[in-house]
Write a structure and sequence with these properties.
Layout (H helix, E strand, L loop, with lengths): L3 E4 L3 H14 L2 E7 L6 H5 L2 E6 L10 H11 L3 E3 L9 H9 L3 E2 L4 H8 L1 H10 L15 H11 L3 E5 L9 E3 L2 H19 L4 E5 L5 E9 L5 E13 L2 E7 L6 H18 L3 E9 L5 E7 L6 H8 L3 H9 L4 H4 L11 E8 L11 E2 L2 E3 L6 E5 L6 E2 L6 E9 L2 H13 L2 E3 L5 H9 L1 H4 L7 H19 L1
Parallel strand pairs: 1-2, 1-4, 2-3, 4-5
Antiparallel strand pairs: 6-7, 6-8, 9-10, 9-12, 10-11, 11-14, 12-13, 14-19, 15-18, 16-20, 17-19
The structure holds ligand MV4.
The site of ligand MV4 has 17 residues, from strand 8 and strand 13.
């Protein structure tokens, strides 16, 4: 086992990694920016080193500063958390060449999955279902026209180096093709220094469903079932749950087996998430893979009773999957879990709301978990993402998890800044959500309905 791990992150995920290290008896080193001097990750780590000014580009993303901190403190390994340097293949390479274990997949696997078109072809080869689309990158608008005719409109072009929605264009007919192709190409070149594009059939109202996997360094990969992540706005997830109300045991097993085979062939090691879109017919199609631990990993932890962050650390030491999960069971998930992301932002305008928290009361009790680094009188700096807490509930079934989430949301008090708590209360009370009728356009529809309701109240008064 490692003696000491540096955590190259901040906020709730840095605390989450510290929790796992404490349980494993591993010492921890926090790194922090000038804006995070009074953060809890600094307080709870065994050692802490300031690595620069508030802006991430000058601190948490500064590879030489992070590596220097690791060398000064003589750590064996670095946990990158999510975001920041977590999917940076160059960083993973620098760690290895400095004889520091990077807690994540090998650099070449990060690089492969970072090229979405290559990841797509790798999955196709391993018989994981993908959407109809181009084979390889498309060089010219003329070539794009031929593919679109073959696939059938509407289609979508995506940046091979993209993800999270940047460098994408929906093309509904041939007249839009040339303009959209060229603008996506220049946007991708400007954003990623790489204008490579590929094309897929466009799904109008997909559900976003992702599978959690773990791989060991002995060639074994296991699937831990799915998370339903359709409740999002502008590519920011708001609420996630496991299992999905639309994934059957048969689909879970079929996709799971496919992923276990394909990812072990690829040499996937450590935790990863495979993203799928579910079409209107209920079929799942691979879209991309994330080579990190995700924000929403707790919902999988609750239904599998596994500690995914501890598993990441164990796998990085060379442990076998069978050491972590002695009795592998294809139906290893039980109950239902929901996560609400509590963001420091206006619940409807989604504008950031940094500042000082005046009151902070966390709910608790049976089936309630809160992952947070926020506290009363603490300051939310404006430089980083707006997540301040994750509220997770668990129940024997979805209705019980929903009921617990409702009472926990009622008992969660944050004063001094705006948060997404009121929006979550609205979602949990919504008949469509309760019926499981959700897709990636759900939040947009809900906000429109809320506007209408308010207009009616104004008309009555
Ligand atoms: C799509 C799609 C429809 N059809 N691909 C958006 C981010 C990127 N990760 C993939 N995305 C999408 N790809 C095809 N072929 C719709 C989206 C999409 C989306 C996907 C998942 C979650 C939220 C989304 C919001 C808008 C669009």
């Amino acid at each position: 086992m490692f003696k000491k791990i540096l955590i190259a992150n901040r906020g709730e995920i840095a605390l989450r990694v510290i929790c796992a290290c404490k349980e494993l008896g591993v010492k921890t080193v926090a790194v922090y920016s000038d804006a995070d001097r009074n953060s809890l990750h600094v307080r709870f780590a065994d050692e802490a080193i300031c690595i620069g000014p508030p802006r991430s580009s000058e601190s948490y993303l500064n590879i030489p500063a992070v590596i220097s901190a690791a060398e000064i403190t003589n750590v064996d390994a670095i946990h990158p958390g999510y975001g920041l340097l977590s999917e940076n293949a160059n960083f993973a390479e620098v760690c290895e060449s400095s004889h520091i274990k990077f807690i994540g997949p090998p650099p070449e696997v990060i690089r492969l999955m970072g090229e979405k078109e290559k990841a797509r072809q790798a999955m196709k080869k391993a018989k994981v279902p993908i959407l109809p689309g181009s084979d390889g990158v498309i060089a010219t608008a003329e070539e794009a026209r031929e593919w679109a005719t073959q696939i059938g409109y509407p289609v979508i072009v995506k940046a091979s180096a993209g993800g999270g929605g940047r460098g994408m264009r929906v093309i509904r007919n041939e007249s839009e093709l040339e303009g959209s192709f060229n603008s996506a190409q220049s946007e991708a070149a400007a954003a990623f220094g790489n204008g490579n594009l590929y094309m897929e059939k466009f799904i109008e109202r997909p559900r976003h469903i992702e599978f959690q996997v773990l791989g060991d360094s002995h060639g074994r990969v296991i699937s831990l079932g799915e998370r339903e992540c359709s409740i999002q706005r502008r590519h920011q997830k708001l609420l996630e749950e496991s299992p999905s109300t639309r994934v059957t045991e048969e689909m879970r097993s079929e996709i799971g087996k496919g992923l276990e085979k394909s990812l072990s062939e690829i040499g996937y090691v450590n935790a990863g998430t495979v993203e799928f879109l579910m079409d209107e017919d209920g079929s799942l199609h691979f879209i991309e893979m994330n080579t990190r631990i995700q924000v929403e990993h707790p919902v999988t932890e609750m239904v599998t009773s596994l500690d995914l962050v501890k598993s990441q650390i164990l796998l990085a030491t060379g442990a076998k999957i069978t050491d972590i999960i002695p009795k592998i069971d294809r139906k290893g998930q039980r109950g239902h879990a929901i996560e609400c992301r509590i963001n420091a932002e206006h619940p409807e305008k989604f504008t950031p709301s940094a500042g000082k928290i005046k009151t902070f009361h966390i709910p608790g009790g049976l089936g309630v978990r809160v992952d947070t680094a926020a506290y009363a009188e603490g300051v939310i700096p404006p430089y980083y993402d707006s997540l301040i807490a994750k509220l997770i509930t668990f129940g024997k079934d979805r209705p019980e998890a929903i009921m617990r989430m409702q009472r926990a949301l009622e008992m969660f008090i944050v004063e001094g800044i705006h948060t997404t708590i009121p929006l979550h209360r609205r979602i949990l009370a919504d008949a469509e959500f309760r019926a499981g009728n959700i897709d990636t356009k759900y939040v947009e529809r809900l906000l429109a309905r809320m506007q209408e309701e308010r207009a009616e109240v104004v008309a009555l008064t």
